[in-house]
Fold:
Amino acid sequence: MYLPSHRQPSSPPLHHPVPQHPIPPMRSPPPPQMQGTNPNPYIPGTSGSTNANSANRYADSRYSNLFNDATAQVSLQVGRNAMMAGQEYVEQNFGKFFSLSMPALKSYFNVSNKYVYTKLVLVIFPWRHKPWARLMKRSEVSGTVEGYQDPRNDINAPDMYIPVMAFTTYILLSSILAGIHGTFHPEILGYIASMAFAIVVFEILGLKLGCYLLSISNEYQLLDLVAYSGYKFIGVILTMVVGSFIPGLTIKWIVFLYTFSANAFFLLRSLRYVVLPESSANPTSATTSHKQRQRRIQFLFMYSFVCQFFLMWLLVKS
Structure:
């Protein structure tokens, strides 16, 4: 018996939809617009530079209106007058000092190697030095006196090269010795420099006060006092070096007493033309009374011996 085969009906074939419109190709993003190009291509004649030019013209018009305003002109004139008045006041009160100090300060550093060596020997061994009078500078045309000679040409002239170098050497030497003894710390440099500077300022202020009370005036008095106040560091450095390498306090204090005595004698003879300018320039001058002259000599002695002993002891002790 024939049995017909049961077949499942076959599924119809799949048909994918075919796009009716072509796919547009992929496009890269538009490049960034440069400054000054048209930001909107659909509006011709517009650009970023046009807006910038309009802003500049607006600002220029505002400033031009500001300077053309009467109130602004009055304000500028008042400010100009105030500035001129301030400049005139500074020139009247401080111009003379700066015009005197700047050229004079330069001459204090006009030294030579021979001068430095001879001056160091003079400060340490001043006992047999003669003469102590400073040399005068005269004009080559008229022959009139124009002041004192520079340190390069006069061993008795004060300088600032040796005091500045001695001041710096004292700070560095104190730090080195502290490191050798194991007591160095980073703050010691600032402490030693501040203390030494305060001592010098205190000394100069005391000198200026004494000169003011005794009516002592000199053209280059302040600069001379600053220079002479720094020579004490030479004796202090010598005392510290000897005391560090030779054991025992006896040798150290013997050296200290000698350097103090040498520095006091040096100042006593060198500052005579500052404290007693009239007697040094003209011995027959009698413009100061005998009593005033005695006070000046006592002031010079107190500064050269008493004050220097106390200040040098503080420097060596620290």
Notes: DSSP finds eleven helices and two strands in the chain. Residues 43-49, 279-286 have pLDDT under 50 and may be disordered. Residues 70-107 form the longest helix (38 residues).
